[in-house]
Write a structure and sequence with these properties.
The structure is a single chain. This protein is α/β, with parallel strands linked by helices and 270 residues long. It has one domain: NAD(P)-binding Rossmann-like Domain (Rossmann fold, 3-Layer(aba) Sandwich), CATH 3.40.50.720. It is built from eight helices and seven strands.
Length: 270
């Protein structure tokens, strides 16, 4: 099979990408990138104004269909309503991106129960809700040879080298999503659905207030070393998502792809 043209223009035409947390940061950038390759979109966020803004940005330069779905993904009932709305408008969800996530709490043993529940409800239960509610329809799609692709957005904070007691519960939540990535790859592989994760390090996103000076100060405070001494840009994550959505990645599943400028391999070495 020929793969060299798999990232050419409009390789996602006729396919739908559903992105949670699409109102800013990685979610918005992935939505823009998928649209540029012809995908129709389902944009989900708890904040309606944010996905309206994402939609308006996309439609300035792309002719695609976009469905806005304001929903709290930690609420199973709301996700079920979203599923109904999605399949009333579209006949497929080829790419499902579990991107929505929040930070909260402090070290794991000092975090308040309400903060623990809030982080785990969005970062873990939310991704679980969306995946379990959408995978059955995805498994019956007629695309060949892969009928659907699930992409989870994890974090280096959830990796063995990146576990961080300053954001302990967030680390736990992302470690759980990495584990889900591998479990779902095993469970959904027989249905020809791939499941992979993109694992960002330090990027210019709302989680760091979109402020490079704040990030540099945070890096210095935490004594973090970056072999590639640059702050990541959201487009770099979106480019990896495009690759995973392409035919070139059809035989890749269960992987947590770290994109961090070498941060995690540098710990205790630089």
């Amino acid at each position: 099979m020929e793969y060299e043209n798999s990232l050419n223009e409009n390789f996602l035409e006729g396919k739908v990408a559903l992105i949670t947390g699409a109102g800013s940061g990685f979610g918005r950038e992935m939505a823009v990138s998928f649209a540029c390759k012809g995908a129709n979109l389902v944009l989900n966020d708890i904040n309606l104004e944010s996905i309206e803004e994402t939609r308006d940005i996309i439609l300035k330069s792309n002719k695609v269909d976009i469905l806005l779905e304001q929903a709290d993904i930690s609420d199973e009932d709301q996700v079920n309503i979203m599923r109904k709305n999605v399949f009333n408008k579209f006949n497929n969800v080829f790419v499902l991106v579990n991107n929505a996530g929040i930070r909260g709490g402090s070290s794991s043993l000092k975090t308040k129960t309400k903060d623990f529940n809030k982080v785990m409800d969005v970062n873990v239960k939310g991704a679980w809700n969306v995946t379990k509610i959408f995978y059955r329809k995805m498994s019956k799609q007629k695309f060949d040879p892969i009928v659907g692709k699930i992409i989870n957005i994890t974090s280096c904070a959830g990796t063995e080298c990146g576990l961080n007691p300053f954001i302990g519960i967030y680390s736990v939540s992302k470690a759980a999503l990495i584990a889900f990535t591998k479990l779902w790859a095993l469970e959904l592989g027989p249905s020809n659905i791939t499941v992979n994760a993109i694992c960002p390090g330090i990027f210019l996103t709302p989680i760091y207030n979109n402020d490079p000076d704040f990030i540099r100060e945070w890096i210095k405070l935490r004594n973090i070393k970056l072999p590639i001494d640059q702050i990541g840009e959201t487009k770099q994550v979106a480019d990896v998502a495009l690759f995973l959505a392409s035919k070139a990645a059809d035989y890749i599943t269960g992987q947590n792809i770290i994109i961090d400028g070498g941060m995690t391999i540098s710990i205790n070495k630089l």
